[in-house]
């Protein structure tokens, strides 16, 4: 900002283009950007309309114009845009094809006679026989050649801003369809291009320029920088051609034949992979108009590119952005999109931190009932996928001796050896698959997970692992919107099975267990009958002591779900025999973790597990009242357990108090079986309110109140 109100900047009288550029940059950075952009735009257009003073040039004006239309596109009138359209036609199409003259250094030995400049050349060294473009090569460039390059660099932005019908003249909107079609025919004929309005003429010359770039990209560049420039210009040219076709459909067929040939030429060359994206975008936008089946283009794109170029950060970002921009079209019309989700996840596994936000948009579109189970497995194996991709890259760059065939009889000593070992080959192939394979069994990855544990501590694998909990949460939230009862049961089975089959990263396991635990409750609320339908699997899981030690979170929530939903209130198929089997299994678990051990070993489980087990046993006993004496006897023993020196040395006073309080509440409640059954077995229609209780099995406040009343008036309690 100006240091004084008396000191103001103005661009209205400035004739020097370089000074104008400096002043306008300051004006555009100040508070009222729209007013500044309008003033700058007016001044730039006025200078472009007239003849510049001697020694001045337009090279400083185009960057200013680009800034103006970025800040405030509406600042230019139709007449002003036509001025720019005419100038851009001249700059793009009629730049000199002779090289510029070297500027004399002014030194003592500078030659008074400079050699006449020769013609510009193509990137392969041959003399250019067509008009100048950004891919034309010279030792020095003339002023109009620099403007040619600048005009091309801002052409896309200009066409998007002012090339559509919305910015045309009011009269052009009133033309009949016949007149419009005649105009399209005229614009398709370059010999009549001078008869066209400025906007249509710029469109025609821009199309010719892009066609010339496509032709120039077919030449073999003598220098690597020129080859890189070819690829960059090809991407821009195809993108601009797509924009032109969207603004005028008469260009579609000319572009279609051009891009078909181009795609056939570059599709096998991975160095042109980024160019395939704008080509695919063109077919998405115009294949219906041109009545062309372009599915082969998308199949090649989704199957080959991610598998081979997942390690390219720029391509990964552009590829995922391309998918995001076309989600609706892909999900509604092309099955290859969802089928290729294992391939797309390679981008995420390798570039996790930079792509996590993009995949938050992508994952819900990739997820459907057919891909849900396989995708859940893949998310849980994402760190292993990152490790496998690393091994794949290292194997591709290994020396001949390292690539020597492995002896099938010898167990591999490293991941690199395992990658080529027959025993692990099919596992690697499944993990690195390019399309969904719902019929294959993920169990084959179990030995591979253990082997890849040796590289689990690499920074890339750790970064990848940190993204999994967030994506898991999104996965379950999305699946909950469409999952039927069968799919929910399958998800729960995967949850139980995979809770101990994860990448060997302690922090990763803890985070995943936390997410899986919370999502188990979500699935149970959606389909409470799953506890009855999966009783065999849940009984096996809850009756395994190792699950308490290795995955306490998951185990705790499974036990809570059993106590909450194993009831005829939720499923009429629930039987007393099922309740008794669960009771016996959980009673054995509680006995196992609370039996008194030597002080050195200490109790194996947290107070939370103990209180949840006590509460679940009480709930089950309230529904099969023959079990009440057994659980009551067990609860009375908890005081001796807590007060034993072996326990007191491990649990804090607060932990011990929590166990005793819960045991006391449950004991008091069981003295009134009918009340216990009412308090601990909510009706299914009240599940919404009851589901708000603490998932760690804290009892409702009403039950605690009953417990206090019973303690105060024990003489009135029957029996």
TrEMBL record:
This protein is called Adaptor related protein complex 5 subunit zeta 1
GO cellular component annotations, sorted alphabetically? AP-5 adaptor complex
Q: Which Pfam families match?
A: SPG48, TPR_AP5Z1, TPR_AP5Z1_C
AP-5 complex subunit zeta-1 ARM repeats domain ranges (all copies): 229-346
Which intervals hold domain AP-5 complex subunit zeta-1 N-terminal TPR?
Answer: 1-188
Specify the AP-5 complex subunit zeta-1 C-terminal TPR domain's residue ranges. Answer: 358-709
Q: Which organism is it from?
A: Crocodylus porosus (Saltwater crocodile)
